[in-house]
Design a protein that fits this description.
The chain is mainly alpha-helical. The chain folds into 3 domains: 20-98, no CATH class; 113-164, no CATH class; 177-251, no CATH class. 48% of the residues lie in helices and 0% in strands. Helix 2 crosses helix 11 (224-248).
Length: 256
């Protein structure tokens, strides 16, 4: 039985040569990526017995569940390997961490007393009696009335609301995937520039990652200098999305 994910799970195309844009559609990729960028978590991966981590229970629990996320080479190949790693119980790492628990959900005819008694005692089940001699239209109307009274059907966004997840780990809040994509792309560019000793230009960075700002008030002066300041603020805010996510991920929280 396939496990269900409340948030978009990653698809790969090929595990050996995964498709970048497919992986980047899943927030779980950025969860993993945040762990690889957290200095404390990487240090723990390098030396799990280090004394400085012994009192950090949340961090140790995350490490117990997520394991070593260090990698060399292509990050998408590394993520595919990590996500699909088989655990002792036969599950993949990704499903174990992020999928909803397996539940037996079905509609069926109850034919024995023992099953009926068990279903009556279960708050998640609904046992209904239908007399065979009734007209179909009356049965349908009665069933609809019972369903409205006893079952809360969810539509649209609520079915994907991470707050309703029972997985071991779920998103702390709903977040647009393009926000994560832009935030981590921006973070990568800034880290790369700083590693190369290059000066960071927020205006240029905004163009590279597609951050655009619009003039909200037609009466305000919109000269180049002012626009650059507005862009700089937008870049700083977007970078903070990644920075905060990287910081909080070691507590089992993503995004922050």
């Amino acid at each position: 039985m396939r496990r269900y994910f409340i948030s978009q799970y990653p698809t790969f195309g090929s595990y050996a040569n995964p498709t970048k844009w497919k992986i980047e559609q899943s927030p779980y990729f950025y969860w993993w990526l945040a762990l690889t960028l957290n200095c404390d978590y990487v240090a723990l991966c390098e030396n799990p017995s280090a004394n400085r981590f012994k009192t950090k229970k949340k961090l140790l629990k995350v490490y117990e569940d997520f394991g070593d996320v260090r990698y060399e080479g292509d990050r998408y190949v590394a993520f595919a390997k990590w996500w699909n790693a088989k655990l002792a119980n036969g599950e993949t790492k990704g499903a174990y961490l992020f999928a909803e628990p397996l539940t037996e959900m079905k509609v069926e005819l109850v034919e024995d007393v023992a099953t009926a008694e068990r279903l009556i005692a279960d708050e998640d089940e609904l046992l209904i009696r239908v007399s065979k001699g009734m007209k179909r239209t009356h049965i349908d109307k009665t069933l609809n009335r019972l369903f409205k009274k006893h079952i809360e059907f969810e539509k649209g966004r609520q079915t994907r609301n991470p707050n309703r997840s029972n997985a071991r780990y779920s998103l702390s809040k709903s977040i647009a995937i393009d926000s994560l994509q832009t935030a981590f792309a921006l973070y990568d560019l800034i880290e790369q520039a700083e590693a190369n000793g290059e000066k960071v230009n927020n205006y240029a960075l905004a163009k590279q990652v597609g951050i655009e700002v619009e003039q909200r008030n037609t009466e305000e002066e919109w000269d180049i200098a002012y626009k650059r300041r507005v862009v700089s603020v937008a870049v700083s805010r977007k970078k903070k999305v990644a920075v905060d996510a990287i910081k909080s991920v070691v507590n089992g929280v993503f995004p922050s």
